């Protein structure tokens, strides 16, 4: 938030009228905690004790307070800076109990995370698999996570898919309803800086690198859906409901805004 172009009185009124839950980085849970401290709006947060709140929450809270005071602390992310972790996660449209459907969902999210891994030219040395079980008490889901350290850093989708499918077999329990799934790559480093050691299957790695390059070229030429890895189905009952998704005017031809002028007369009498 910047107040350089606003008069002090106008900016103060804006802080008073803006609920603390509308600040970027402060969600419903944190806003309830802040309200218990008597912090109801942005004005209250501006003059709160940042040293106390940083102990209760995080350093981001202190930066937010300083931003409200006019001090620039939160910088926009540089898209060229590679990620430290890559996560893909979504809730299901309805709870799932079948292992095969869970594997289909995992393959979908693994593919999404792998696309980001490839676009950033990085390798991953660790993969995290999470299943969220439905429970009858808030927050109504409980996570079960398995972190697997890889034998060597890789971007091999076939190898990553094999590992994730094995971990689904480990985490899955019968007669349990699952409401969410997640996959995360961590321990990332640039591919161009990677050095193989003597204990790695170098010949296999080179063969897989050529395979992944061919895989990527095929996707770039024929689309990401031309080649699939793992479990797939045309009926994805597990996908999140998106009936209220905003139209993507700038990235989807079939969602572009159209103006119907068929009711207008072709010629008009002067």
Notes on the structure:
The protein has eight helices and four strands, in the order H-H-H-H-H-E-H-E-E-H-E-H. It is α+β, with helices and mostly antiparallel strands. The protein has a four-stranded antiparallel sheet with strand order 1-4-2-3, covered by helices on one side. A hairpin with a 6-residue loop joins strand 2 and strand 3. The longest helix has 21 residues. It is globular and about 70 Å long. The model has no long low-confidence stretch (mean pLDDT 83).
Residue runs with pLDDT of under 50 for 5 or more positions: none
Number of helices: 8
Indicate the percent of residues in helices: 25-40%
H and E string: HHHHHEHEEHEH
Q: What sort of overall outline do the alpha carbons produce when their principal axes are compared? A: globular
Strand order of the largest sheet: 1-4-2-3
Helix/strand-derived category reads: alpha+beta
Distance between the termini: 51 Å
């Amino acid at each position: 938030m910047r107040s350089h172009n606003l008069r002090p009185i106008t900016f103060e009124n804006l802080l008073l009228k803006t609920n603390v839950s509308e600040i970027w980085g402060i969600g419903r849970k944190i806003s309830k905690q802040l309200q218990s401290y008597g912090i109801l709006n942005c004005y209250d947060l501006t003059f709160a004790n940042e040293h106390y709140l940083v102990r209760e929450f995080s350093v981001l809270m202190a930066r937010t307070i300083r931003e409200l005071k006019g001090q620039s602390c939160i910088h926009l992310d540089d898209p060229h800076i590679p990620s430290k972790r890559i996560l893909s996660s979504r809730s299901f449209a309805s709870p799932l109990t079948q292992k095969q459907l869970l594997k289909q969902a995992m393959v979908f999210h693994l593919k999404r995370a792998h696309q980001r891994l490839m676009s950033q030219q990085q390798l991953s040395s660790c993969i995290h698999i999470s299943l969220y079980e439905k429970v009858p008490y808030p927050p109504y889901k409980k996570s079960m996570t398995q972190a697997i350290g890889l034998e060597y850093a890789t971007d091999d989708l076939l190898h990553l898919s094999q590992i994730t499918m094995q971990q689904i077999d480990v985490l899955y329990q019968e007669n349990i309803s699952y409401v969410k799934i997640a996959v995360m790559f961590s321990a990332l480093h640039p591919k161009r800086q990677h050095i193989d050691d003597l204990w790695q299957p170098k010949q296999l790695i080179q063969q897989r690198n050529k395979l992944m390059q061919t895989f990527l070229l095929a996707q770039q030429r024929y689309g990401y859906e031309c080649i699939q890895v793992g479990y797939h189905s045309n009926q994805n009952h597990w996908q999140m409901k998106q009936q209220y998704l905003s139209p993507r005017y700038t990235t989807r031809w079939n969602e572009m805004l159209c103006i119907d002028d068929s009711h207008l007369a072709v010629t008009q009498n002067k």
